[in-house]
Design a protein that fits this description.
The protein is α/β, with parallel strands linked by helices. It folds into three domains: 107 residues, 3-Layer(aba) Sandwich (Rossmann fold), CATH 3.40.50.720; 199 residues, 3-Layer(aba) Sandwich (UDP-N-acetylmuramoyl-L-alanine:D-glutamate ligase), CATH 3.40.1190; 135 residues, Protein-Tyrosine Phosphatase, Chain A. The chain has a six-stranded parallel sheet with strand order 7-8-6-9-10-11, covered by helices on one side. It has a six-stranded mixed sheet with strand order 15-16-20-17-18-19, sandwiched between helices. Helix 2 links the parallel strand 1 and strand 2. The longest helix has 16 residues.
């Protein structure tokens, strides 16, 4: 869309215009920076506030936009008093008192996804869920590329949504978090899915139902709803006046897994599409991810041939059940992206090894770690705990298996080498957020890989 068309849409939806609007961007992370570039390109007035003394992108912003007012080290009331609109970055809670006060006074809340939705006429697919959303997002992007589509992939994963805007794009594929969805009102994806739900972010939501309610905002609009028949929350969100597709392992699912004379196959209404044994990504959870990507790809008109080409080549994501090394017949696996219990469960289920040394811990985000107990008993010989919530996790699993609090990741790797025997697997799958000890899950995973490679040397 052209600038004047975008400005017209923003004025129509949010009364956001060059003449009278003043936007306050709360948080100068990657999302906040993308919003700053977007607003500057449209000639809209804005200022930035951040509670941190030196936010991650402070230097870049000052170099590119030296005239923009930036207030760091806290939230100044005077800045909010002049705001007509407020864009709160996903990492900042909407429950911050100063934000709630501004909204109560009539300041209009925005999100980067709202701004994106007002700026595109091309179809967009929206993907959320507690686990698997990055895999499905990148896999669908690969499918579109294999079908010669000009596709832009990002959102919560990688490139912020506003940085994806491109007049040449045929299709947008967005991964969206609950934090992005909770502050979004304009989303109308051509196809959308909640891949699954497990307890997560309960430090930010009152209960699981509140978390689910935010996830379900991905279905706003009139596009195709893709639901997971194996998810107990799916039945609550189906709408009779919508085009609904389903995926899962139940026979009633539109996209499921069937048995053929040649083995298991991903299928649509009983028609085999792709042999399961040709998937390079392992585990039943990745079969479900592949089914979701097939359903979404078909919805946006991708050919079976192109989608199968992408499935055949897709190796998965770094930090998600990523093979690192085999040392003295022990395999080491990096699943640092497992920032909640459900992801850790999926990783354990996907490992064929019967005996696992599990490294877990970090910021548990108020999740119930006792949900791990059945798989710990079944597959884990020793649990090594790191991070700030190690003691809480030990209490929750109630010594169902041997548990050692080792504190740091480096110590965990050393202890795991002592414990693991030939045929075992050492799995980093924290079931927790990383930022108590690391910059992010990537940093945690990279430090794990480096420590393992040091052992190999």
């Amino acid at each position: 869309m052209k600038k004047d068309e975008i400005l017209k849409a923003l004025d129509s939806q949010f009364s956001l215009n060059r003449d009278s609007s003043k936007v306050v961007i709360v948080g100068l992370g990657s999302t906040g920076l993308s919003v700053a570039y977007f607003l500057r390109n449209l000639g809209l007035q804005f200022a930035i506030v951040d509670s941190r003394v030196k936010p991650p992108f402070n230097d870049e912003l000052l170099a590119e936009m030296p005239d923009v007012a930036v207030f760091t080290g806290g939230f100044e009331q005077a800045v909010f008093d002049v705001a007509t609109h407020i864009m709160v970055s996903p990492g900042v809670s909407m429950e911050e008192p100063i934000i709630q006060q501004a909204i109560a006074k009539g300041v209009c809340p925005l999100s980067d996804i709202d701004l994106f939705a007002c700026s595109v006429s091309e179809p967009a697919v929206a993907i959320t869920g507690s686990n698997g959303k990055s895999t499905v997002t990148t896999l669908l992007g690969d499918m579109a590329k294999a079908d010669a589509k000009r596709v832009a992939v990002g959102g919560n994963l990688g490139t912020p949504a506003l940085d994806l805007l491109d007049d040449k794009a045929d299709l947008y594929v967005l991964e969206l978090s609950s934090f992005q969805l909770e502050r979004t009102s304009q989303l109308n994806a051509v196809a959308a899915t909640v891949l699954n739900i497990s307890a997560d972010h309960l430090d930010r939501y009152a209960n699981i139902d509140a978390y689910v309610a935010q996830k379900n905002k991905v279905y706003a609009g009139d596009g195709v709803m893709l639901v997971n028949t194996d998810c107990p929350y799916a039945a609550k969100i189906q709408q009779t006046n919508r085009n609904v597709l389903s995926f899962g392992f139940q026979e009633k699912a539109d996209y499921n897994v069937i048995e053929t004379s040649e083995g298991s196959s991903l299928a649509f209404h009983g028609h085999a599409i792709f042999p399961v044994d040709q998937l390079l990504i392992s585990g039943v959870h990745n079969q479900a991810n592949a089914l979701a990507a097939l359903a979404l790809g078909t919805t946006v008109g991708l050919s079976d041939a192109a989608m199968c080409t992408a499935l055949r080549a897709y190796k998965g994501l770094k930090h998600r059940v990523q093979f690192v090394a085999r040392i003295q017949d022990v395999i080491w696996v990096n699943d640092s992206k497992a920032t909640n219990v459900g992801a850790c469960v999926a990783a354990l289920q996907g490992l064929k090894n019967a005996s696992v040394v599990l490294i877990a811990g970090g910021d548990a985000k108020a999740a119930d770690m006792s949900d791990l107990i059945p798989l710990l008993k079944e597959k884990v010989k020793t649990l090594l705990l790191i991070g700030k919530d190690g003691k809480l996790i030990k209490q929750a699993v109630n010594d169902c298996i041997p548990v050692l609090e080792v504190g740091t990741l480096k110590k965990a790797v050393t202890k795991a080498q002592e414990i693991a025997q030939a045929g075992d697997a050492v799995l980093l799958s924290p079931a927790c957020a990383s930022m108590d000890q690391f910059a992010n899950y990537k940093d945690r995973g990279e430090q794990f890989v480096a420590a393992v490679k040091a052992l190999k040397q």
